[in-house]
From TrEMBL:
The keyword Calcium does not apply. It holds the Pfam family NUDIX. Keywords: Hydrolase. This is NUDIX hydrolase. GO terms for molecular function: hydrolase activity. The keyword Hydrolase applies. Belongs to the Nudix hydrolase family. Residues 42-182 form the Nudix hydrolase domain. It comes from the Bacteria. It comes from Zongyangia hominis. CDD domains: NUDIX_Hydrolase (cd03674).
Length: 186
């Protein structure tokens, strides 16, 4: 499914998602390829996923190099209009664990600020990540591993420990949405 079709099919669960969807769709219709690639320097699509174990009691998080916090997986679409496939690919690259989509539908939608920073020796200006999120499933039997270019670790956490592990207060409401929506898919 093309990225615009997938975005248009998303049903917001709160006012924040309604407003973010309006903005993302306006950007998508104005420049469909720009938000799908990094050609748009101000905002681009970065599908993410929260990885649950099969019974939904634990999540697999990575220790993000840039933010120094335990967080979900995700990355730039880089031209791929299959946003769910991007979320799966990023999760597998960042953890070394095979994952699958619990549902092909976008589970949550957020716009996240990225502050100016250096990456690979080059300055990256502040911009927005247009973040469709997916619920992913993985078996705990496969030991996770870090992807040093992206993170310094990958580890399973009990749901009750996500807030403390993350340390990013602004991210916890997103995780809460994904936890609640994952329960509806089951």
């Amino acid at each position: 499914m093309k990225h615009i079709d997938l975005l248009e099919a998303f049903r917001p669960g709160c006012e924040q998602e309604e407003r973010d969807l309006e903005l993302i769709l306006s950007l998508a219709h104005a420049d469909p390829l720009g938000i799908l690639t990094r050609r748009s320097l101000t905002a681009h699509l970065t599908p993410s996923g929260l990885i649950f174990n099969p019974d939904g009691s634990r999540v697999l998080l990575v220790r993000h190099n840039l933010y120094g916090a335990w967080c979900w997986t995700g990355g730039h679409a880089d031209g791929d209009p299959d946003l769910g496939a991007v979320a799966v690919r990023e999760a597998e690259e960042e953890t070394g664990v095979p994952v699958k989509l619990l549902s092909p539908a976008i589970a949550a939608l957020d716009i996240l600020p990225v502050y100016g920073h250096r990456k690979n020796g080059t300055y990256v200006s502040a911009h927005l990540h247009l973040c469709p999120s997916f619920v992913l499933i993985a078996k705990e039997e496969v030991p996770p591993r870090a992807l040093p270019s992206e993170n310094s670790g990958a580890q399973w956490f009990n749901l009750a420990d996500i807030r403390e592990a993350s340390g990013e207060a602004w991210m916890y409401p997103i995780y809460e949405k994904l936890i609640a929506r994952a329960k509806r898919y089951r």
